[in-house]
Amino acid sequence: MNTIDAKKELILKTARELLAKNGFAKTTLDDIAQALGMKKSSLYYYYSNKDALLEDVMNRERDNFCLMIEDALKSNDSTINKIINYEKSKFEYVAETIKLHEISTSVLFEMKSKMFKQIQIIHKREIEMLKKVLDEGIKKKEIKKCDTHRIAELILTLSEALRHREFYFASFSINKKIDFSKAIDDMIFAIKLIFDGLKV
């Protein structure tokens, strides 16, 4: 990694931390430059504005997330266990990201509106990956023939709904801490129900 790439990495890491802590509206390029110990004019060498920096941060986050879920689906396990592992990994990734960067629910909701394009890309990739795992399950005769695209969409919808439920409840609590343990249990239960209906 050359000096420019290393500096850009540091800028992205610092920007991610400040954005997670303060949100997009309250984070300025001055804040980021100050946290890095550099002048704002030096930051413009790497990024022309805050939106360009945010886009790079979101692209990096998207790529990290997609790599993580791809890894979770690569095991030689049964189809149901691959999908359970994938869901656990997703919940753990989100929980760790929130904990690591002390993201409040209000900041998360603000950033989510800015991340809509990224969320659509991730959603499409997840559907493709889940469909592929389900198609392989049919070939291995682990599950019966079905509309794997619709099953993939259903699994993803349930997962998103359970995460949103926890964000919603946390927004009303005093400490605003998000605990995904019930959501993970509910997701595993739902996956098992789906797979009971898909038994050969």
TrEMBL record:
Residue ranges: DNA binding: 28-47
Gene Ontology MF terms: DNA binding
Chain segments annotated as coiled-coil in the UniProt record: none
HTH tetR-type domain location: 5-65
Keywords (A to Z) from UniProt: DNA-binding, Transcription, Transcription regulation
Protein name per the record: Transcriptional regulator
Organism: Ignavibacterium album (strain DSM 19864 / JCM 16511 / NBRC 101810 / Mat9-16)
